[in-house]
Write a structure and sequence with these properties.
Layout (H helix, E strand, L loop, with lengths): L1 E4 L5 H12 L3 E6 L11 E5 L15 E7 L12 H11 L3 E5 L6 H8 L3 E7 L10 H7 L1 E5 L10 H13 L6 E5 L7 H12 L4 E5 L1 H10 L4 H12 L11 H6 L6 H7 L7
Parallel strand pairs: 1-2, 1-4, 2-3, 4-5, 5-6, 6-8, 7-9
Helix pairs in contact: 1-5, 2-3, 6-10
């Protein structure tokens, strides 16, 4: 069985590749630039671009499991090639498909859902890896500057998303399922900063920003206005799904979801000066 992973160099894609390798699967990784992919030995790296559906045809040869993302191009623009990608997958003999839900309407996700493929939609909440956005400020100033300090998140380790995807791609019983994927705890910003402080061995200050200060900070970092609007809504009015723990990881993989403290220990060096 060969599994094709699109978005393979991304935060989740790399974890899907890693989990499939751990399960002894044949893995083919799709990327626009194979020379920069940097995958472990045993991964077949192929060139392709989801915005050009026809470029996937050679990569799909002999593939039985397909992991898809729903965006391409700058700023996570939704793909417009969903129906063609789905048709190519079906023609190639793909049996199982996982789709990483992008948080909004998706032509690709709709096309996969409407197909007769054994699809699984993965719906993770906030990635633990998002904390890496604080790394520069923590190394330079020993602080995190964020709005809405009391906001809650059931954030998930990206490796757990990869693990759920790998099971769905290689085992029966997951077709037609939507899996919300969370970590094992609901955390505040204070909880996250405390875990990072413990992991790096030095205290980190949490500086709560006003909404206006946060907007100015995000603009200075080059964030587009629509992304800023999304962040204000997501952080200031986090929906219940983003702050409610579910046991998907344990049910699907047979082991508990990883904690943020574990993630912090794994990435501690990124936060040390």
């Amino acid at each position: 069985m060969t599994n094709l992973v699109t978005g393979a160099t991304g935060t989740v894609g790399r974890q899907v590749v890693a989990e499939l390798l751990r399960r002894g699967q044949s893995v083919r990784a799709l990327t626009r630039d194979p020379a920069k992919a940097d995958f472990p030995e045993g991964v077949e790296v192929v060139r392709g671009d989801l915005t050009d559906a026809e470029s996937l045809a050679p990569a799909l040869e002999g593939v039985t499991g397909l992991h898809l993302i729903t965006f391409g191009g700058p700023y996570f623009a939704p793909l417009e090639t969903g129906p063609r990608i789905t048709a190519l997958a079906k023609a190639a003999g793909v049996r199982r498909v996982t789709v990483l839900h992008g948080g909004g309407p998706s032509q690709l996700e709709d096309a996969v859902r409407e197909s007769d493929l054994a699809w699984t939609v993965l719906m993770p909440v906030e990635f633990m890896a998002n904390a890496l956005e604080w790394a520069d400020a923590i190394r330079a100033d020993g602080e995190v500057r964020e709005p809405f300090a009391g906001r809650l998140s059931a954030m998930v380790h990206e490796a757990d998303i990869g693990a759920v995807a790998a099971v769905a791609l290689t085992e029966d019983g997951h077709g037609g399922q939507e899996y919300v994927i969370t970590g094992p705890q609901v955390l505040t910003l204070e909880d996250k900063v405390a875990a990072l402080s413990a992991a790096r061995g030095r205290k980190i200050r949490l500086v709560e920003l006003s909404e206006q200060q946060a907007v100015e900070q995000w603009r200075a970092a080059g964030q587009p206005e629509d992304v800023i609007g999304f962040l204000l809504e997501a952080y200031g009015n986090t929906p219940p799904v983003g702050r409610t723990v579910v046991d998907t990881v344990e049910k699907v993989t047979g082991r508990p979801a990883r904690t943020f403290a574990e993630w912090a220990e794994e990435h501690a060096d990124a936060f040390r000066a």
